[in-house]
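Following the same procedure, sequence and fold were stored together, as reproduced here:

>
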Amino acid sequence: MWIKGIMLAALGLSAGAAAAGGIFSFIIGLGVVSDLADRTHTGEQIRLYEDAVALGGILGTIWIIFQIPIPEGDWLLPAFGIFGGIFVGCWAMALAEILNLFPILIRRARLKMCIKYIIVGIALGKSLGAMLFFSQRW
């Protein structure tokens, strides 16, 4: 019985490590990290950024699985929400940029002006949708 439990634990841990490694590689491969480092002119810190992404994913997973309480969580929760929103927004924009979403949309819709308003509208719509989603959960 012990051997079966140990084998299941090893299998679950290795499968989780493989899935997490794939997600981290996908995030880094999309260019989210390198694009942010390029835009902030901090390219020499790219290894630190990649380590921070991996460490954030690992700690977030541990936090969710073991439901670790965070002391003084009332003031920390808005900060977590802001940083999480920035991360998801950057990831969505990186996906859109890699897929050449905006150039295709602009060319097909024959847009010449007001492109910045469309991008702001997308961001506001995403923000409003997130606020509605999270207000419904509570």
The radius of gyration is 20 Å. The longest helix spans residues 2-30.
